[in-house]
Design a protein that fits this description.
The chain is an alpha+beta fold and 142 residues long. 22% of the residues lie in helices and 30% in strands. The protein has helices at residues 2-13, 22-25, 29-34, 112-120, and strands at residues 37-47, 51-52, 58-59, 62-73, 80-82, 103-108, 135-140.
Length: 142
């Protein structure tokens, strides 16, 4: 009886209007369950702050980011999330090169440090942005 009550309570308290894009349903279940942060966003790239090199030259890193449109899972404190990749991870042997201005569904599993930055909406240098295993999937939508 307690389990039934807990299930009913959970169904009442969980928001039912969080309909994820169709692309999410096409992912394998283990990939969907792995993500702790899920959002849709528009892909963009920008220059980092100036980096001074030992020989006196200056360079700027190219920083890939997403302008967050809608958050489905997790806490996102800012309007932009930097990532350290210009391609999506391989899912079912398919990887996508990200295109400027295109909308994507992004699934992340950030480590503890990355999660603090995402929740606070802070800027981080590109080399500290979520990368590798922290990026679960990036899927084209629309």
């Amino acid at each position: 009886m307690n389990h039934l009550f807990a299930t009913v309570l959970l169904l009442i308290l969980v928001p039912q209007n969080q309909k994820l894009p169709q692309a999410f349903q096409q992912l394998p279940e283990e990939v969907r369950n792995k993500a702790t942060v899920i959002f849709t966003g528009t892909y963009g790239e920008g220059k980092s702050p100036c980096i001074f090199r030992g020989d006196g030259t200056r360079i700027w890193a190219l920083e890939p980011y997403f302008n967050v449109k809608r958050v489905y899972r997790g806490e996102v404190g800012g309007k932009t999330i930097l990532i350290n990749s210009r391609v999506s991870p391989r899912i079912n042997d398919v990887s996508v090169k990200l295109q400027l201005g295109r909308e994507y569904l992004v699934l992340l599993r950030p480590n503890e440090e990355s999660m603090k930055v995402i929740k606070a909406g802070e800027y981080v240098p590109i080399w500290d942005a979520p990368s590798g295993e922290e990026i679960v999937a990036i899927l084209k939508i629309k």
